[in-house]
Amino acid sequence: MLKEIPLKQIQISDDFWSFYINTIKEKTIPYQYSVLDNSPYVNIENENKKDYFEKDKSNALENFRVAAGISDGGHYGMIFQDSDVYKWLEAVAYSLQVNPDRKLQAVADEVVNLISAAQTDDGYINTYFQVKEPRLKYRMLYSGHELYCMGHLLEALVAYYETTQNTAALNIAQKVVNHIDSVFGYEENKIHGSDGHPEIELGLIKFYELTKDEKALKLAEFFLDIRGKNTEFYKEEMARNEKDGLPIKMIKVPHLETYLVAHKQPKDMTEAVGHAVRMLYLAASMARIVHHNSDSEMYVACKAIWDNIVHKKMYITGGVGSTTDGEAFTGDYDLPNDIMYCETCASIALAYFAYDMFKIQPDTEYIDVIERTLYNGILSGASLDGIHFFYVNPLEVHGNINDSNPDHGHVKRVRPQWYSCACCPPNFARTIGSVQRYIYTIDEENKTVYLNLFAKSRLKYGDIDIIQDTDFPGSNSIHYTVSSNSPYILKIRIPYWCSNVKITVDGETFDNVKNNCYFEIGKEWNNSRIAITFDTHVMAVKANSKVIADANRLAVQYGPFVYCAEQIDNEHPLSRYRVSNDDIRSAVIAVENCDIGTVPFIKIDTTVESSEENSLYTYNPQIEYTTAKLKMLPYYTWANRGSDDMMVWLHQK
Amino acid sequence: MLKEIPLKQIQISDDFWSFYINTIKEKTIPYQYSVLDNSPYVNIENENKKDYFEKDKSNALENFRVAAGISDGGHYGMIFQDSDVYKWLEAVAYSLQVNPDRKLQAVADEVVNLISAAQTDDGYINTYFQVKEPRLKYRMLYSGHELYCMGHLLEALVAYYETTQNTAALNIAQKVVNHIDSVFGYEENKIHGSDGHPEIELGLIKFYELTKDEKALKLAEFFLDIRGKNTEFYKEEMARNEKDGLPIKMIKVPHLETYLVAHKQPKDMTEAVGHAVRMLYLAASMARIVHHNSDSEMYVACKAIWDNIVHKKMYITGGVGSTTDGEAFTGDYDLPNDIMYCETCASIALAYFAYDMFKIQPDTEYIDVIERTLYNGILSGASLDGIHFFYVNPLEVHGNINDSNPDHGHVKRVRPQWYSCACCPPNFARTIGSVQRYIYTIDEENKTVYLNLFAKSRLKYGDIDIIQDTDFPGSNSIHYTVSSNSPYILKIRIPYWCSNVKITVDGETFDNVKNNCYFEIGKEWNNSRIAITFDTHVMAVKANSKVIADANRLAVQYGPFVYCAEQIDNEHPLSRYRVSNDDIRSAVIAVENCDIGTVPFIKIDTTVESSEENSLYTYNPQIEYTTAKLKMLPYYTWANRGSDDMMVWLHQK
């Protein structure tokens, strides 16, 4: 079984990711704290067109103060508002691990103390239920999110403890685990259900990994077993509340169990259904528990869900979730580009799931998906200034449609400062802020290091030291300097998007190295040098013909970057361009400085439909085409220059 | 000003429309009566994915019996369930006018008597409010539909009286008008508002046209003037109900006034917005009142709305309403093919609006739209068996998407037997059942007859007698035999979709007659003969480049018929075909007998993308094409052979 390497043992010094890691430290984390603490300068938007969530302020920290008895007032915000603080704290933990900062740590310590003060003696903590609805504690697992929040709390506390050895953090976590153990389980006097939103499972497994407290692992297994065992569980809860005259507090969804991904037991699942983030947090915990219990039935389910997603339900950007209705997966090959959901959190969860699958069976396909999400669908979740965020990441927008058609009401063209449902912004911070974890993975048992991603960085772990020197993605040459006290196998991922790969290991040259696999070298390393060079070309991408939305269209990718066309860079309306496979493959990279920094644009000599019609319909038209240049930029940088039309999938000639 | 010719003065004997008129008489009318009278053999569906309307039965007739005190029980169904009966009665009136039937008339007379029995002494009639919510009478014009229902009642009674001289019908109508006059108007003690759903205006104008009761015309003018004068009117009504502890009973819509098309006064309107049927019933009444008061300000508004629709918001099928959210118009050129609404009723209302515009200013553009709706978007509203109905008329469906993506939940692929909201089925019956009205129009003042549509028929009106002999749409030759006692001008519409038009009038031949206009002949007619021949070719249609949904696509039209491809007729998935302008123009008509009768299929020698990919995305693909035949059939006949994929707009080569 492979293991993640602690962040502090991977120093990153590249331009690409370091920009984000520094932005998150310098801007995102302080900004998000100010939002959570009710900065008056923040304009909060609803994440979809339904305009009925409270959005005057976040109040997330104040909710804890109220629960702790420090402040007066009520609870404000979503039922899961606490989790915004927890994800922020987790982001801080990762930032501190690689960039110690006493001031920031002091702020975070205070937050830990505040959480501790709010936690009740029995270990329970959820400010919504403590302050606003004590009657409903654990009576509405279908939408209460109590365990969901505690799962994020455990993840945050484990990370924070690992970084800072803050014992208060560990104590809170232990109390939470003991508390959950006292309330949930197979025993007759305990609740035989799991949270409507998976997440506690991941928190419990991580707590187990830190403390080896078997109780936590057993609880995670319990939640993964009890889910979907009684498919009527949530409806019975609702009926009980109704009978007792208590409010229901659940949005209308057509198939409740499927929406909650509790339509069957996880081990029996064969495809991705329901709410995408729920599905993928669940899948990630299913894969992660296999690390510990080697449950082969569960692994088969994980693999089936994985295959279903990556072969039938994943956007080229690594986005998932084809509908806003239930923020959900739909059918195989149903990938609309303009009214989809593609929530930032869902791509994040897909990366988590992928990494836990990789650690079970280290195939490049998992890193391919991690890379796809990181460089595209997750990164597009934030603006380059680090303080504006997308919830929904479309692959095509047209201003006049978005402004006038309510079916597109959830698709924004400018990243807002914050959301009433603010799950994505701190999720972005914790994920991209710890992106180093994906560069290297270790298999201690087999003395193997997996070198997954190209990025200037240094790994020092145990007796191995790898210095990776490269300007990637700005260059196609990578140099490793490797030392170890014992023989080690290095497995270097040669991505699917490069060609003509040449590798030299201490003077010995390998030509025409196969791509789309790991290149393996096992030896004793003594300041040994590995050099890799490869070619990259602009690539045309075709979707499977079963994808109706992409029929007669092509996308453009360069290296790991999916490209898009924005109207601001182009003379003609984007829907008028007609590109061919050859046009794209002949395209050139043109690095330019512009408002958003140095951008490797792609310029394509292609064709534009130039007919000018006045009427709505023309009969037996003379369709005219003229040559034109189409300029594209990496998808993750879109919408950083105002509100604009954008297309990923271009019309084919 | 032009005038409609009473139906009984137009005898139709063609194959095409007579089939429908007979089907409506023999099947649709009896079937719909049985539904309205709670036949146990009917399976009722909701018209959209929201599954919360009562749909065990129609109960529409029983509601009247309850209101009349003949039956016990409550009200069942929609707030506007009464209108289903009224539209059915109107359909019966038109059917009886051309095909007298004592038995059917007796049934209809009974319905009139039932309505009369339910009407209160003061003239009010609405079974929902009488039986279920007397407290809310005229207190919720925003969604109460009382005047909407009475509008349909007036239309039905006027038609029924014109056909049968049933004085009970006229009495009910007069009582309704007197009643409305006593409640609504500018006077201080009257209500200063109009119905949230326009329709009463049309009913009142038609009553005025029959009776010359000025009160009715004034009332219609009042409703068209008061609408949108106080844009807060409906919100004030809601506030009043809330204050008085009464239920609100209104669906959530983002912009109430726009949804209700009461965002401004009709005379100030410049574009089509809001709920499509509301907008178009309103527009039809605006145009129709101009017939009587020549209000030039109102006419300018009508023309602006018209131009906005036909140049920017109308589907090639004559469908309108681009979103299910509010069943509404959206922005200019926003015409999605797969998640639109295109309600049958909206196309019907567009035809009504078009005809009233035509009668003000007889241009071919109005008849073009009437023809477009009749032969396509309206006709698709019913199955060929006459007893299954579409509410939503999509231009593209794919089974796997429709079944799995809730954003397509309102789009059905098989016509249901009935709907919980059953506006469309009887609207279809009354509209197609009186289709003759569009064939000829008279301008008595200028002694002119407009010959708008080709169909074997005979007009006898006043001193003119026109026999139109043709097998159109099965043939391209038309013969008229015309007699009149005085000089008459005939204006024969030469459609935009024909060419090489040759006209012979009493031996004198006109070659290369211009199409897309009226061909005018003024003379004395004495058993005179006019012969017309023309060519028709399969035409490729291109949408304006601003229509994002149709970019890089072509549609196919033959004569007035828009064509579509159904999967059942084709070997490859429809989204794989790639057609060119030339492919389409070289296509042939192949008349075949199949399950649904004799169908003029179109066969196109074209190309299909034959690449077979296993993966979701292919890089630098070899895209392969092979020749293939694509078979298409008239759009109106789709979905008569089970549930299938269908496309109108084909991918362009």
Q: How would you describe the overall organization of this protein?
A:
Two copies of one chain form a homodimer. Chain A is built from 18 helices and 25 strands. With 653 residues, chain A is α+β, with helices and mostly antiparallel strands. In chain A, strands 4, 16, 17, 18, 19, 20, 21, 23, 24 and 25 form a ten-stranded antiparallel β-sheet that branches. A seven-stranded antiparallel β-sheet of chain A has the order 2-8-9-10-15-12-13, with no helix packed on it. In chain A, strands 1-6-7-11-14 form a five-stranded mixed β-sheet, with no helix packed on it. The radius of gyration of chain A is 25 Å and the shape is globular. The two termini of chain A are 48 Å apart. The mean pLDDT of chain A is 97. At the A-B interface, helix 13, helix 16, strand 16 and strand 22 of A face helix 13, helix 16, strand 16 and strand 22 of B. Strand 22 of chain A pairs antiparallel with strand 16 of chain B.
Task: Give the topology.
The structure is a homodimer of 653-residue chains.
Chain A: E1 3-4, E2 10-12, H1 16-36, E3 44-45, H2 60-68, H3 82-98, H4 102-118, H5 127-131, H6 146-164, H7 167-183, H8 200-211, H9 214-226, H10 233-243, H11 256-259, H12 276-293, H13 296-313, H14 344-360, H15 364-378, E4 396-397, H16 399-404, E5 418-419, H17 424-432, E6 440-443, E7 448-451, E8 457-461, E9 464-470, E10 477-484, E11 488-494, E12 499-505, E13 508-513, E14 517-523, E15 528-535, E16 539-543, E17 553-558, E18 561-566, E19 577-578, H18 581-585, E20 588-594, E21 597-609, E22 617-619, E23 625-634, E24 646-647, E25 650-651
Helix pairs in contact in A: 1-3, 1-17, 2-4, 3-4, 3-6, 3-17, 6-7, 6-8, 8-9, 9-12, 12-13, 12-14, 14-15
